Amino acid sequence: MLHFATALAAAGDAVELAMSLLATATAKYRSLLTSLSSEGDNSEVPPVTCVVADGLLPWAIDIAEELGIPALAFRTASACSFLAYLSVSKLFELGELPFPAGGDLDEPVRGVPGMESFLRRRDLPSSCRSIHETNDVVDPVLRLLAEYTAHSRNARALILNTAASLERSALAHITPHMRDVFAIGPLHAMSPSLSSASSLWREDEGCLAWLDGQTDRSVVYVSLGSLAVISHDQFREFLSGLVSAGHPFLWVLRPGMVGASQDAALKEATDAAGKAKAHVVPWAPQRDVLRHRAVGCFLTHCGWNSTLEGVVAGVPMVCWPFFTDQQINSRFVGAVWRTGLDMKDVCDGAVVGRMVTQAMKSAEIRASAQGLAQQVKQDVANGGSSAAELKRLVNFIRDLSVTPLGSRKARDQK
């Protein structure tokens, strides 16, 4: 399948980047930390007393600890995907990895704790899928992600951008393997004033004015994220499904997303649905779009940030996952939270149209989506689980910070 092959290539680029950072950035990082952790009286900058490092940069954690600076790991993916990567060695022990050639991707997977009743082979992170596709037992992407995930045990604590009401079971199964775990999220909901100015693409604010002219819950919002690349044939299947569903749609088509066919795709989308029903932009202010009264459904790749934004907005989702953690995220949307429909591994206009129609019209899905949104809002409000976890994290870091560096080194060597 073209979109899966492209995903593997993108993941391969990530491995190359990780190796490059390991080779080139560690010395400079060590030097920087050494200079910033000085406790000399002449320093105008307070010494670094704690490091919060991306969990996919394990060397950042190791070097900090070697210098006597406590390090915490922060992972931006879902807790459920973190648990799946943490369970990779068990999946091999149980014989659930590698997938047999030609095996049924709907075969249940029992080796990820807490997910035995609903997880299938096709729901595992995409790097597990590559083993099935290539018969390569030692897949470099899977090996790297599993190793980096297990390495978070070495950090003083693990921070996850999630909420108890979303992933309580996964968090419970992760906690015994870590020194401490903080579930603080969704972060964008905890800081409503937080700008999306860090977007990789310039947002088209004009789409909000177009939404203003649409009726309530009438628009399908389509965005497959910042990395997905689709073929022109796949584009046409999505387009035919959207047109057949009959709803106005706002579609994010990044430059180059449909390759050399991009210009033709933009014209084709507008011509097929008519300018009144089709609005195509290179990028959109997604949080504002999702909470707009006109949006009735979100067709998404199910990246964790997009998933969280859809959850907080209470919008039903149709999920077409692309790679890494998106496969397992979409399973949670469809089978656990029941706030949308999982369309993975299918790119057919009739299926797109049917699922969009169901997501737009289903009172049950909408009620589940809005109910989950209310639960998450309670999590981030004063007294909620995420708010309490944030306070606990602040105190945790404060306790690390008040201990002098020399005392920490002596204590940690005991």
Automatic annotation (TrEMBL):
<protein>
    <recommendedName>
        <fullName>Glycosyltransferase</fullName>
        <ecNumber>2.4.1.-</ecNumber>
    </recommendedName>
</protein>
<keyword id="KW-0328">Glycosyltransferase</keyword>
<dbReference type="InterPro" id="IPR002213">
    <property type="entry name" value="UDP_glucos_trans"/>
</dbReference>
<dbReference type="GO" id="GO:0080044">
    <property type="term" value="F:quercetin 7-O-glucosyltransferase activity"/>
</dbReference>
<dbReference type="Pfam" id="PF00201">
    <property type="entry name" value="UDPGT"/>
</dbReference>
<comment type="similarity">
    <text>Belongs to the UDP-glycosyltransferase family.</text>
</comment>
<dbReference type="InterPro" id="IPR035595">
    <property type="entry name" value="UDP_glycos_trans_CS"/>
</dbReference>
<dbReference type="GO" id="GO:0080043">
    <property type="term" value="F:quercetin 3-O-glucosyltransferase activity"/>
</dbReference>
<keyword id="KW-0808">Transferase</keyword>
